[in-house]
Every structure is written in C-alpha cells, then in structure tokens.
Amino acid sequence: MSNREAMLTKLAELDAEHATAVAGGGERSVARHRARGKLLPRERIELLVDEGSAFLELSPLAGWGSDFTVGASVVTGIGVVEGVPCLITAHDPTVKGGASNPWTVKKIFRANQIAEENDLPIISLVESGGADLPTQKEIFIPGGRLFRDLTRASARKQPTIALVFGNSTAGGAYVPGMSDYTVMVKEQAKVFLGGPPLVKMATGEEADDESLGGAEMHARTSGLADYLAVDEHDAIRIGRRIVARLNRSSRAAGAPAYAEPDADPEGLLDLIPSDLKEPFDPREVIARICDGVSPTNRVAFDEFKPLYGSSLVTGWARLHGHPIGVLANAQGVLFSEEAQKATQFIQLANQSDTPLLFLHNTTGYMVGREYEQGGIIKHGSQMINAVSNSKVPHLTVIMGASYGAGNYGMNGRAYDPRFLFTWPSAKSAVMGPAQLAGVLSIVARAAAEAKGQPFDEEGDAQMRAFIEASVEEQSLPFFLSGMLYDDGVIDPRDTRTVLGICLSVIAQTQVEGTDRFGVFRM
Question: Is the pTM of this model over 0.90?
Fold first, then answer.
C-alpha cells in the first residue's frame, strides 16, 4: 500500500469518528429535539459566526474510547463574530439533555484555557441538564473551576456572554449567573438552582418551571436575564449585537499579505510513510504549509544551522503572512547537536518575539554509552529548559512518532502549547511498543536468572504480544485525542488553514519573548 493509500484509509476512519461526534445522541434524540422547534448546537454556531468565516472546532473526539458519547456532549471552538474572534461553547442537548460528564468538564477547561491565553471573548450557548449524576464524584469537585474561569475572565475584561436556549439547571445556572451578558429564549430557557421536583423535596413548595426559572420571569422579576429573545434566531441576533458593541474589533492590524505555498499541500498525503521507522524530509512538509516566495517573502524557508544537528530542521518562515520559527524532526532521533541547536533557536525566537511551530517525528533522545558520556542528558535538559521557559506562543503538530522525552523537548501537551494538533499517522508513548515490551522482557528474564528459576519463553512471548498491542492502541491519535492530549486530529492537507486560524487568533495579543531561562547546565 502506498503512503497516499495508507493515509486516505486513516482519513476515512477519521471522517467516520467525526461523523459519530456530529450525530450527537443519535437519530431519535435529534428528531425529538427538532420536534420541539429547536436548532442543533452546530446550527446555532453556524448562525452565530460571521457568514463565510471558518469555525475551528476543538477536541471533537473528546471521550473517544470511554463509556461516553464521542464529543462529550459539548461543542467547543473558535469562530469570528462581528469581526471578533471568540471562543464558543455549545452544549449538545441530544446527548442526555446536554448533561456534563467528566470529559465535558475537561473539554471546557481546555477551551477556557485557550480563551484566556489568547484573550478571546467567551460565548456560551447553553442547554444543559447539569451534571451527569451517576458520575458526579468526578465532576462536582473539579467542576467548580468552570464558574471560576468565567468570573476570572470577566475580571480580565475578557467578555463573557451566555445565550440560554433551554435548561440551565443546578450548577449550570451559574453560567448565565456569572456571565457579563445573558440572553434567554422566551418559553424555552429554564434557569434554576433546583427544579420543581427538588424544590418539592427540599421545601414542600409546589412550583412550575416558568414561575421557578422561566425566561420571562428572569427578565421581568429576578433580573437574571439582560435580554429576552422571542426565539432562537432572535437570541443569536442579540448575541451578535452584544459582540458588536464590545469595542473589541479584531486587534490584528489587518490580514497580512501572503503567498500560497511553493508546493501543493495535496502532496502531504504522499510524504508520511505508513511505517514510522522510515524517515522523511520535513522540509517537504514545510514547503507545503508555509508561505511561498513573494515580493514580501523573498525566501520561503530560511534554514538556520542547516549543516549542524541535521536530524532537526530549524528556520524562519511565514504562514498566512505571520512570521514563525519552525523546529521539525527529520530523521527521528535527537542527538546532543540537535538539542543544542534547538536551545539556541528558541532563544533567538524569544529575542525577536516570533511564535514557534514544532513539527514532531521523533523517537526521542539518543541512548547508549557514547551518547551518555557525550552529555545527552544535559543537552536534552537544555532544550527542555528552553521550551519550558520560552514566552512566545508555541504551536505543535505531531506528524508521526512522538516518543519519550522527545515529546517533551518538542513541546508536547505537558508544555502548554497554545494549540496542538495531530495527524492520523501520529503515535505518542513513552517508547515504541516493541521497545517497551522488549524492555519488560529483559527485566523479567534477568529477574528469573537472579532467582535461579527457569524462564517461561512461551509466557514471555504472550506477554510481549499483549504489551505491544496495548501500547500500540494507547499511542494512536484517536485514543490520545479522546484523552484531550491534543486539540484535534486533522487532515494533513488542512494543516496550513488550521495553523493560519490559530496564528490569527494569537495575533490578537502582544507577542513578547523572554531572556529569562533556568540554569543551563554546561
């Protein structure tokens, strides 16, 4: 099978998983929701964002491989509303009434982190029955952070807007309660700390939904609703009007001029080997995602230290007109030279206030007597130090392998990149499946020899096969995306567009590097 055929097979699997997320609670639940005259979450988002603009959905596979519906009953992403990039969160009421499960909470945490780092207004499209009660022990304690994030956003003058389309009960009532602006849909929105059954049990009081928490009551009596919308379309219209009055027109100084890549992005499907042990030239990736030569961009990719540390490609480029520094793994293994080169390059990017793009295809730092004596630990530590303390925005794309400390040095999830995406070809783990199983086998064999016991060769073979299969499954992109270790699995051909959106969002805030790093062990 060719590289292209293998990638197209993976992309077909990705499309199927995305379709599962879009399907929400299934045909019956969707039909029931529509019968109430209501829009689906992505339909609400489509009407909210500016016509013809893109919506970058985040973490669409959250919860994949768990007992919960793929997507975690909420849609999150970045869209432009009245010219202003905004973080949008929309509950999916077709999945258990939009109830929040443990993955819902984690997904919204990540969305709020992105909003904070990029100073984005937060628009919440609310229709949720509150917490998924059978899993409350995993939601209640950490879930309070959702409301903390909203109030802290407001304190930062980062606007928060709630459009309430249906139920917003129990803890969920605090989303409109803690938002700067709240819009409720007449005869649909129901906002109360305790619904009629709970009130009956707690106080003995008889109350109906409308008098307890209806939209009109909150608009006329409690004052919780700032605007009363006649229907969903009206609520979205009011929401757009609120954004237009925020005095936060796009802070980027207009869309920068750019040239299309020198090479066709379609060719990315041919580049990535189905066997990740086979190296590929990341310059071919850079040529297909970064801007090409133009009067304002005389060199498409200005490579830095091309003759030193050749397993890591570093250099300067532009992407949709935005300047970036690129670090891309070429042959997989990182040696001392590559680590030192990366450390210097990251420092230079911080001096010039230039965002960094990390493209992963690494099996980690080199091991062995020669390399240990040559200082691979201290050189790898220098690189990780530089990544950890760098203050310019980081973007990460895991193209192929991302194993061991190479994942750390190349700015994996633990190092808080502004955005991190993976390709369907990606794999990430402490080490490759065969290597991990082999290490365990060697340790078991040594233990048996130390005790003077015979070694069970058949049992060892079964153990190795089981471990390899388990690690292989747990290192695949769907599994990692389901754990929220990335912001989405994307088609390689969409990489340029996705990164362009991310860079335009990053441009809303001042990019400022640092000259303060931890101690570099020399």
Answer: yes
User: How buried is residue 307: exposed, middle or buried, by Cβ count under 10 Å (0-12/13-18/19+)?
Assistant: exposed
Cα gap 160→150, rounded to integer Å: 7
| Bridge partners of residue 90, in order along the sequence | 75, 125
CB 231 within 8 A of CB 185: yes
Amino acid identity of 187?
E
**Is beta strand 84-91 parallel, antiparallel or unpaired with respect to 74-81?**
antiparallel
Contact 441, 463 (CB under 8 A): yes
| Joined tokens for residue 491 | 């088609």
pLDDT tens for residues 189-233?
999 987 777 777 778 788 788 888 999 999 999 999 999 999 999
**Are 3 and 274 within 8 A, CB to CB?**
yes
In contact, 513 and 353? CB cutoff 8 Å: yes
Distance CA 270, CA 263 (A): 13
Residues 249, 236: Cα–Cα separation, whole Å: 19
> pLDDT digit string (tens) for 127-137?
998 777 678 87
